[in-house]
Amino acid sequence: MEAAAQAQADEEVRLAAEVAAQAQADEEARLAAEAAAQSQVDIDVTQKDDLAKSMYAITEATKKSKKEQEILLVRLNEVVITKEKDLKDLKEENDLSEQGIYMEPKPFKSISAENRALEALKSEVDQSISERDIAINQLENLYAQRLKKVSNKNDETNKYYLDAIQGLKADKAESERVKASLISNLETIKVATEIERKRRIKRAVYDNEKDRFNKDKAALDRIKENTPLSTVPLKPEDFDFGEEQTSNVQILKDVQNVENGYYMIIAVHQSVRDRDAFLEKAVSAGQANINFFYDVNSSKYFIYYEKFEYVEEAMRALSTKGSKPYNGKMSVIKIED
Predict the structure, then answer these.
(1) Residue (of 225, 296, 224, 287) closest to 256 by Cα position
(2) CB-based contacts of 164: which residues, under 8 Å, 6+ apart?
């Protein structure tokens, strides 16, 4: 009994499966027939005559170019995303640096290489939009020709291509809007990035100048502490005064780590070696107040030992420089913001 019941159940399952398979096959056949019928209807509409066939070819080619254009716009958007991230990282680096928090700086990318790649991509996008514009114009011309032959506006072929033209124009307008938006974003990012790059460079210059100042101060202290007085009188010819200065008062702006005022300059050197040699000679000649500052704009060291608030004081001191051997080439420099 149990065996017979099992056999009957199996048979019912088999029959049900056959019915389901047949139903699925019938449905697939029906859908295929409908698709074939619709395809024939579409062909009858879209390729009804020679003008329609020409319009069909242009429409399909334009649809394909739309996909290619979308890929180009996606690539352009990826450039925007990348540049936004680079800007964010650079700004974070600068902000943290100003807070005294060190962050390993990312190397500057090749701006020229990036710009070439970007311009090439923008050119591709422009070319794609231009080609679609030409195709739409061609399609409109063919549509106008067919409308003259088949003036019935209710003609299905005319209606189909009128809708196609309007759709292609809408797609083109949207592509141009997206492109304009992306280009606008890129310009905004470019301006902001340039500001942050200048912040980074300025910060690097500041850090370098701070490091230079500390090293210079240490060198001056070392020379003052370790240079003995000369056992023989020194003469002006024992000193290398460096670059010849004018008799007029020179003005230097934005010199770091030095107060505004008038400085009695006794030597000007570009190399650290020549600077230190002069300092040692001056200290050995008995000038304990010797000092100097560095002008980053001219890359020169200006050595002095007197500072004045007013130009009259400085010029009076210049005219009565005395016979000290290190005073042979004195001049006045004004430091101001």
Answers:
(1) 296
(2) 55, 59, 139
Do the Cβ atoms of 334 and 251 come closer than 8 Å?
yes
CA–CA dist 62, 138 (Å, integer): 11
CA distance 315 to 331: 9
Q: Are 169 and 129 within 8 A, CB to CB?
A: no
pLDDT band at 140 (very low <50, low <70, confident <90, very high): very high
Tell me what pLDDT residue 19 has: 61
Distance between CA atoms of 243 and 241, rounded to whole angstroms? 7
Please state, rounded to an integer, the average pLDDT across all residues of the chain. Answer: 86
Task: Read off the amino acid at residue 216.
Answer: D
Q: Considering the entire predicted model, what is its pTM?
A: 0.54
**What amino acid is encoded at 20 in this protein?**
A
pLDDT at site 39: 43
Spatial distance between the Cα atoms of 337 and 334, rounded to a whole number of angstroms: 10
For residue 56, count other CB atoms closer than 10 A to its CB: 22
Please say whether the beta carbons of 269 and 235 come within 8 A.
Answer: no
